[in-house]
Known about the structure:
Elements: E1 11-14, H1 16-19, H2 30-35, H3 37-43, E2 47-50, E3 54-55, E4 67-71, H4 78-90, E5 94-99, H5 109-116, E6 128-130, E7 140-141, E8 149-151, E9 157-160, H6 175-190, E10 195-198, E11 222-223, H7 224-230, H8 234-244, H9 246-249, E12 252-255, H10 265-269, E13 277-279, H11 282-285, H12 301-315, E14 321-323, H13 333-337, H14 345-356, E15 361-365, H15 386-397, H16 402-412, H17 415-418, H18 449-454, H19 459-471, H20 476-481, E16 483-487, E17 494-500, E18 504-510, E19 516-519, E20 526-530, E21 536-538, E22 541-544, E23 549-553
Parallel strand pairs: 1-2, 1-15, 2-5, 5-10, 7-11, 10-12, 12-13, 13-14, 14-15
Antiparallel strand pairs: 3-4, 6-9, 8-9, 16-17, 17-18, 18-23, 19-22, 20-23, 21-22
Amino acid sequence: MIKKWWHDKVAYQIYPKSFYDSNGDGIGDIPGIISKLNYLQDLGVDIVWLSPCYQSPLADQGYDISDYYNIDPRFGTMEDMERLIAEAKKRNMYILMDLVVNHCSDEHEWFRKACENPDGKYGNFFYLRDKKDGELPTNWRSYFGGPVWEDLPGTDKQYLHVFHKKQPDLNWENPELREEVYKNINWWLDKGLGGFRIDAIINIKKALPFRNYAPDRDDGLCSIHAMLQEAKGIGEFLGEMRDRTFKKYDAFAVGEVFNEKPEEIPDFIGDDGYFSSMFDFNETIFGKSGKGWYDARPVTPDDYKKCCFESQAKVGEFGFLSNIIENHDEPRGVSHYIPEGDCCEESKKMLAALNFMLRGLPFIYQGQELGMENVPFTSIEEVDDISSHDEYKVALEAGLSPEEALKAVSKFSRDNARTPMQWSDEANAGFTTGTPWLKVNPNYTSINAAEQMKNPESVWNFYKKLIALRKDPAYKETIVYGALEPVWEERHNLMAYYRKGEKTLLVVGNYQRETQEIVLPGGHRKVLLNNYGDVAEDNGKIRLYGYQVLIFEM
Length: 554
């Protein structure tokens, strides 16, 4: 493997709207991020990924971009962004932006021009089809529910949107469109960006010619995944994008890649991959149901272990995964992966260590380092997220009561991760002096950064120790590049693995509240990290406390 500048880094995702509000309008902004760079530096963060802050009508919280060359005034100005890049550089930190190029906003100039002249240059920037009475061009269902086709205003045509109707898909088959995308990427890299997180990228390649698939719900539509499974040739687009943009700047690019075929993984993240890395979503998608969120299965500790080890085995040592517990599209990881009723400081630390010590690049989502939890919703009216509203409707149509539907949606709502960052126990969790755009989780009085930074035994300080261990010259080579070997795989509610390189480390997590016993093969030199005050050891036998995690040097 060719060593790269980003391999030993720790990344942190910021959702700008909810991170820190500098001007009291209730919305987080770029000056707010700048004011918190020292906080991130103190934690040990090197790479900061910002969810979209480009100009946008915010139909899908900024993932509907109306101008790729401008910052939305809600978040600040281009001067603010340039200052953020410069201030990060002073701290040896890199800024990533979100690259959203499967679709743009219906308020983008390209789309407006397509409406004016669908047969002209910009009509070919999108997927347009002639409108037929009572018949859709295809029966695909959008990610947010309903058909993927919408009438093109003022014309006799329809346009394709695999996400929200205000997010028309861009036609990557058109070389003129691709040129515009590459021009914009390079414009940002010239400003000093460290790279990009690449949104929903598998969707850029459609299976041509378009056709219907077997319906999978009573609405007569089929999941968009049916089409994506048939799509061939995405590598031509991704290889061209890499060569025209990221490669020239030695920029970091991490892909949001679902539906990848196992044999394609080296093409995505090998030494000459399309991307530097891609997120591991194996744990994220586990238990999901084609029927909807209401039908999803909970993730057990054994499920979580199996998912992690499957991903590690699939990638081996030829590439780098980006490992996540949560992000802006998922519920809070501690509420999702820790059995109900067992969320506590010990279990949060255990989950952190088991994920952080995997081979790959660790990504922390804002508030994860505090152990922020899902928010209690009392009504669907409190929910902002468009996909949650669609899933609530799906649950009601499946026969659930409003109470049951709300409970099902609350477990998975993207709003769980989007509630304001909990900075302190002051009003609005110290996020804003105004009215926050989304309700603050009421547990901010007990879970907040100010309190945890003072407490040496806090979740925040445990994350800080994990980051310090990853960067420790004595262990860095092993943690970054060492092989990962599972151990005791068949043990119920126990997740353990070796990291083998210059040294041999053993990571062991007791994924339950009851104690369990292990016998260390060959003994250990020292305990590098422990989420309890002591180790119950007797003649080589170790009794693990509930949710205890230990990192040994063997």
